[in-house]
Structure formats: C-alpha cells, structure tokens
Recover the amino acids of this structure.
C-alpha cells in the first residue's frame, strides 16, 4: 500500500476511535464531597468515590471516557461548563451530567453558562427534590437542561449516562 494511503487509513482509525470514545463529564457541585459521610437518610451511604466507580462502570458499558469532578466553587463549575461546550463542539464530548447541589436552586450564573456553552446537559439529583422543601422545587438549570433525573439515588448517575448514550448513538 502506498505511504499516503497508509496515512489515510491511520487517520480514519484515529477519527473513528475519537468518536467511539467520546467523553462524558460528570460534574458535582457544593457539599457533594460529603456524600455518604452525613445525612445518609436523604442521600444514602455511598461516598462520592463510590459514585465515581459507578460512573466509570457505566461509561465502560457505553464506551465513553469518564471525566469526573467535584467543586464547592460556583466559578470553577462555570469554567468546567465553558470547557465542556468547547469540547462538545469538537465532537470530543458527548455531554455533561451535573448535580449542581444547592446551586441548582440559586444560580443564574450556571443557567447562563449552560445556555451560553450550548452543551448537552442532564440535571441530576440523588433525592427527589420535588418531594422535599419548597425551596428545592425551583431549578435554574431545568430550563436549559436536555433532561432531568431526580430521586433515583446514586443509580441515577448510571441511568443518566445510559440516557446520554441513547442520545448520541447512531442507531
Ligand atoms: O439530591 C441531590 O442530589 C441534591 O442536588 C443534593 C444537594 C441539595 O442541595 C439539592 O437540593 C439536591 C445537596 C448536596 C449536599 O450533599 C450532602 C451530602 C451529605 C451531607 C451533606 C450534604
């Protein structure tokens, strides 16, 4: 095979590989680092490390690469969403699963970031926020999210990854 064709084949393989291994960003907001360590009656006994392992398994099933993060800082979350928007535009990122914690109920800045980044984002809550205090019924994220997952415990993360896989698969 001529050298130039060999390059074409290699490039095609790299391209296919890139699309087969899109990244999913799982973004966790304030206080979620305390998961499993406090309030087990509301959030269960799984730690954030357990959630990361569960997401890693779900990503392996759906042939995604996992980028798993947590921050207590609104600006850091906004930077991550902007970065995700750029990555999705290149085809490298399938989407974002975001548990914004209490920022869900307060943050116009996160709303604007998601909208501005044009990123596919699934809003996630471990608890059923609608069965809790009235202040948790309001979300600044829902209107700019592709979908909302709430009340399925930490298994919701795996369900959301499966939902993203369903959205991005060619079939
Ligand atoms: O149900 C969810 O996943 C929430 O997003 C969790 C947030 C809460 O503010 C939302 O209304 C619903 C709280 C995350 C803090 O998690 C903790 C876990 C253990 C101990 C203390 C806080």
């Amino acid at each position: 095979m001529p050298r130039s064709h060999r390059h074409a084949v290699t490039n095609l393989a790299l391209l296919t590989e890139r699309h087969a291994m899109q990244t999913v960003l799982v973004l966790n907001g304030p206080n979620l680092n305390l998961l499993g360590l406090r309030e087990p009656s509301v959030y269960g006994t799984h730690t954030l490390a357990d959630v990361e392992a569960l997401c890693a398994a779900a990503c392996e099933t759906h042939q995604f690469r996992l980028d798993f993060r947590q921050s207590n800082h609104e600006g850091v979350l906004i930077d991550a969403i902007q970065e995700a928007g750029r990555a999705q535009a290149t085809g490298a990122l399938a989407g974002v699963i975001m548990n914004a914690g209490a920022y869900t109920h307060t943050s116009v800045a996160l709303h604007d970031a998601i909208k501005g980044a044009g990123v596919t984002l699934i809003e996630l809550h471990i608890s059923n926020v609608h069965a809790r205090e009235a202040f948790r019924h309001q979300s600044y994220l829902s209107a700019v999210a592709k979908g909302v997952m709430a009340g399925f415990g930490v298994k919701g993360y795996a369900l959301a990854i499966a939902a993203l896989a369903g959205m991005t698969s060619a079939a």
Observations:
- Residues 31-32, 34-35, 38-39, 43, 99, 101-102, 104, 125-127, 129, 136 surround CA2 (CB under 6 Å).
- The first strand starts at residue 23 and ends at 28.
- The chain has a mean pLDDT of 91.
- The beta strands are 23-28, 65-70, 93-99, 121-125, 147-150.
